[in-house]
Amino acid sequence: MIDFGFDKLALIGAVALIVIGPERLPRVARTVGHLIGKAQRYVSDVKAEVSRSIELEELKKMKTEMETAARDVGQAVQQEVDGANQAFAQTWSDLGDNSIGGDLGSHAYEGNSFGATAYKRPKKNWRLKRGATPQWYKQQLGVRRHAQSGAARVARYRPAGAALRRSTPP
């Protein structure tokens, strides 16, 4: 960059005072200051844009590297799973061919040959769970605590003045 010392700035100021004149010098100096400020902002914006584009390129490169690494890991895991499935299938077929105990091969897929019982879901008693909630909490949330017919619900939530108007004949 250009290096200006105090003596060079004083010389430029004196020449500008003589050439431009004392009346227009402040306005010209203000305009030159604005232009220099705009130029500095433009240069800083360009520098920031260049750094952002460089960072973006680095991020894209890192993304592609991560995707290839993840794909490689996925392929390796899939190969291991396939190998394990093949080994299991081979062992299963060998076990079925030998038919240990005579009756194992025919009942291998039923699940009862080894004494295992079928899975039964645990019972979920929702009445017990609802009964464990405190009454004040249910009231605060507006949970109905007992069954009520539609007509009873309408009668319960009808405004007080509406009941008097309906009871009197027209």
TrEMBL record:
Membrane-related topology note: Single-pass membrane protein
Domain of life from the UniProt record: Bacteria
Record region (Disordered): 141-170
Keywords: Cell inner membrane, Cell membrane, Membrane, Protein transport, Translocation, Transmembrane, Transmembrane helix, Transport
Compartment list: Cell membrane; Membrane
Pfam families: TatA_B_E
Coiled coil: none
Subunit structure, interactors included: The Tat system comprises two distinct complexes: a TatABC complex, containing multiple copies of TatA, TatB and TatC subunits, and a separate TatA complex, containing only TatA subunits. Substrates initially bind to the TatABC complex, which probably triggers association of the separate TatA complex to form the active translocon.
Role description: Part of the twin-arginine translocation (Tat) system that transports large folded proteins containing a characteristic twin-arginine motif in their signal peptide across membranes. Together with TatC, TatB is part of a receptor directly interacting with Tat signal peptides. TatB may form an oligomeric binding site that transiently accommodates folded Tat precursor proteins before their translocation.
Similarity comment: Belongs to the TatB family.
Alphabetical list of PANTHER family matching this protein: SEC-INDEPENDENT PROTEIN TRANSLOCASE PROTEIN TATA, CHLOROPLASTIC
Protein name, entry field: Sec-independent protein translocase protein TatB
Taxonomic source organism: Roseateles albus
Native organism taxonomy: Bacteria, Pseudomonadati, Pseudomonadota, Betaproteobacteria, Burkholderiales
Gene name in the database record: tatB
